[in-house]
Amino acid sequence: MISFLGLGHMGVLMARRLVEAGHKVTVWNRTPRTVEGAFSAASPAEAVAEAELVITMLSDPAVVKRVLADAAPGLRPGALVVEMSTIGPEAVAELRDRLPSQVGLVDAPVLGSVQPARDGTLTVLAGGLPEDLARCREVLEVLGQVRQVGGPGSGAAMKLAVMSALVPAQVLIAETLAYGEATGVDRAALLDVLGGTPLGTLVERVRPAVENGPPETRYALSLAAKDLVLASHATQTLAAAARDRLLDAASAGLGGEDLTAVFGHVGAARRTGVEKLNPASVPATNGYYSHATRAGDLLFVSGQVALDADGQVVGEGDMTRQSEYVMEMLARVLADQGCTFDDVTHIRTHLTDMSLLPEYGAVRRRHITGEPPASTTVEVSRLFQPGLLIEVEVIAAIPAAR
Description:
Pfam families: NAD_binding_11, NAD_binding_2, Ribonuc_L-PSP. With 402 residues, this protein is of the alpha/beta class.
């Protein structure tokens, strides 16, 4: 019996393929969803209780870890987990450490989107021990062409390496079209010329989205951004720029749209003259705001709080610690645009307890050492997450040379 955990755009089609191939399948999804011919379980543990093969197709590393932790009490000794999400090799290694030693693990992320998932023509990038790969190969071949790329973690690493080329290439075409529009180049003619270059296959794939707007979501923009965040490496400067562009688009509310929505986003940014900024040097936002926006030579930095990359409060109950963290985050956002605290024109501070102002003031003076900027400080009853004591936002003037 096969257990399939995760019924998103891709997962539901992949689970359906397995049912149509004659396999007995039990499915689970956080938001209840059914697959005709499959049994729907109420929990991950129930879903895996009788499974010899457990497939996960989920959104990100944190979700995969949480779902498999919930499934762990039901895993049978000798079961094999096939992780098909895009989570990266480090997360795969962590899963191996967390799973019982008698449970096997294969990492097998896929290339392809909704239509290949429906047709069973995905490319499956499989990594793992030879004996584990042999156990699941026949099942994976129902979903597409299986490419064994190496030992444990190799499939996850290969997927990120491939996406580090494919996703930035789409962003590059979006920026090229925006540049063409800005310089008076006819868009249709530009697409035709690009179609005759080595980029031609990709250009023709995205042309309908350029001309008619993004289609139904096949590869969510937020997932593309997540993939590039996972692939971050010092050598990947182009991928890093594409990552930041996609994070900006997600912050603008396009995360649930197809990746091709980036074409409209890049064009809109050029027309409005407002650039949304989300530096990789600070923890990502929740997608409902950008860390900063730049309009001409003015930089508007969102209120920074003491939350780490996992959304946990830093220095709970400690105003000095939270103030240090907030000022460091502000410094990083400013530095992303070539600014320092000397360039700040106005600083606004929200405190939950004005009696703690001296502690914040001492930290602030260590960071703002020159002539102080205009300033507003107010006391509020609470901030958006329990345990937060302070939130600080700034406006800065970007020097002309930057």
